[in-house]
Amino acid sequence: MRVANVQGRAHIVVDGEVVDVAAASGDRFPADPLELLERWPEFRDWAAGAPRAGAVPLVAGDLGAPVPRPRQVFAIGMNYRDHADETGLGVPVSPSTFTKFPTCITGPSAQVPLPPGDVDWEVELVVVLGRTARNVSASRAWDHVAGVCVGQDLSERKLQLIPPSPQFSLGKSHPGFGPTGPYLVTPDELGDPDDLALGCTLNGEQVQQGRTRDMLFPVPELIARLSAVVTMLPGDLIFTGTPAGVGLGRTPPRFLAPGDVLVSSIDQVGEITTRLTPSPGLPQPTGTPRAFART
Ligand code: ZN
């Protein structure tokens, strides 16, 4: 099943058309995508035999983020060996975890203003939780997933890597830095949900290409390790890391400019298009590194 956010309301996608969940269920289920995820198991059972009456054509420009207001967004750095190598940050022994603050989440055809600094691209598989998860074993982890979508972990590298204490979460949370979509795809739609081809083009040039089977910590392991610490909630997102090919890893490094167009795609899931636009200047995220005061 594919579930889209069409103008803020949850819709089931069927053969290029969309069915409004609240209307088709006689308001048994809520229109709000996050509220629907709170009732995901019950909804999924109903949707298997749901009426398709009232279907209307899917208009790509009407699609919003599959989860527009997640309560928690987990993101994993250096989760593919080839990307860990190109960054020079080393291969982690435990998932390198940060957050993208939820206000950065946007939809599948976003226009994103570029802040000052060095903004880079990272195509990622994004996992959407469909149940509360606490101390979940890897073998049960996919049972807690509502679905997956395509994501871009846009990253402003100067602030992300500023010494002495890198600021991954801030550098990756400017407005629009979390494009997601085009819709939530349930795991049963995916041949092998742990082996999906993903890639990204910049102005038509292929810049990233990988497979999710090459993750150092695959999705089940991520959920096991994260839920051992944090209570994960329905609608929470996990940006699961990016393969090699980012701008920072190039010689010389290459970063995004106004007018650039990123197309990020995952096999069997879909693609999203992100357009970078100029933005009024903000303070340059650099400065003299200051050592921590020691007490
Ligand atoms: Zn990333």
Number of domains: 2
**Gyration radius over CA:** 19 Å
The secondary structure category is alpha+beta
Number of strands: 19
Largest sheet: 12 strands, mixed
Shape: globular
- Small-molecule components bound: zinc ion
Order of helices and strands: EEEHHHEEEHEEEEEEEHHEEEHEEE
Question: CATH topology of the largest domain, what is it called?
Answer: Fumarylacetoacetate hydrolase, domain 2
Going by CATH, what is the homologous superfamily of the largest domain?
A: Fumarylacetoacetase-like, C-terminal domain
CATH class of the largest domain: Alpha Beta
The second-level CATH architecture of the largest domain is Alpha-Beta Complex
Low-pLDDT runs of 5+ residues are: 284-295
